[in-house]
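Posted in: Structural Biology > Protein-Ligand Complexes

Title: Requesting predicted complex, 2KA in pocket

I'd be grateful if someone could produce the 3D structure tokens for the following input. Sequence and ligand are given below.
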Amino acid sequence: MSEARETRIRVSEIFGPTIQGEGILIGLPTVFVRTGGCDYRCFWCDTLHAVDRDYRDQWQPMSVDEIWQEVTRLSGGKPLTVSLSGGNPAIQPLGPLIARGHDHGYSFALETQASIAKEWFADLDVLVLSPKPPSSGMATDWDAFDDCLRQAADRPQIALKIVVFDDRDYAYARDASARYPRLPVYLQPGNHTPPPPETDDAAIDIDGILDRMRWLVDRVTADGWFEARVLPQLHVLLWGNKRGV
Ligand SMILES: C[S@@+](CC[C@H](N)C(=O)[O-])C[C@H]1O[C@@H](n2cnc3c(N)ncnc32)[C@H](O)[C@@H]1O
Ligand SMILES: Nc1nc2[nH]cc(C(=O)O)c2c(=O)[nH]1
Ligand code: SF4
Ligand SMILES: [Mg+2]
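-- Reply #1 --
Done. Output follows.
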């Protein structure tokens, strides 16, 4: 049996095409493969249905064939970018899925908090490292972050994406960016009204998010931090807390 046939990946949901709503690939048509399970539990996580073990009966162990069938069905067989997110997708054995997609001309981006490094990071087209600021309640292991960079081995395009809620988060983002001056840095205002996992279309305070984004723009410009890019979660502006978009 080939490696791809044996591999089982724990999947929470597969959806799209939609647009990538965040960071370096914002606006790009994308199919999302969201894996189930995370080694973190951020206070404000907007995807708890892929994190909280109470929802694990909704996570399916799927073969590469099964996932690939769904990705090709959703994309009509036309190559596009597949975003691997979660939960922490780095927990899952995603190498064979990436190899399968590349054989068919698809590209792969990965979203991770950079707490777990895998050798298949070098096979990605884009690696988004999103270390978590103090407001998340999580502590960053910078050795693990460095391992992620080592495994990527300068092959994929790499970007830093940091959620900012407050002054402490902003200071964290500046420190993180100063540590890795070669990485392009994307700042995104936190959504303080993330959806509860059992609801797929919960109320949202867009005005509050936009206020925070204006504050963030003011900080960045006043500080002369001219390398930072400030972006909203575009899908959140368009569809609120809706799931699967
Ligand atoms: C749901 S996470 C999944 C991937 C990975 N676990 C991570 O955190 O990078 C995808 C992105 O959403 C961001 N995110 C999660 N909750 C958020 C919130 N309430 N407001 C803004 N961004 C959020 C994360 O920081 C991350 O960049
Ligand atoms: N449109 C859209 N863009 C996204 N960018 C990152 C997402 C994620 O949850 O990982 C996400 C998502 O769930 N939807
Ligand atoms: S690391 Fe990502 S998926 Fe995990 S709890 Fe934090 S935001 Fe949610
Ligand atoms: Mg999301």
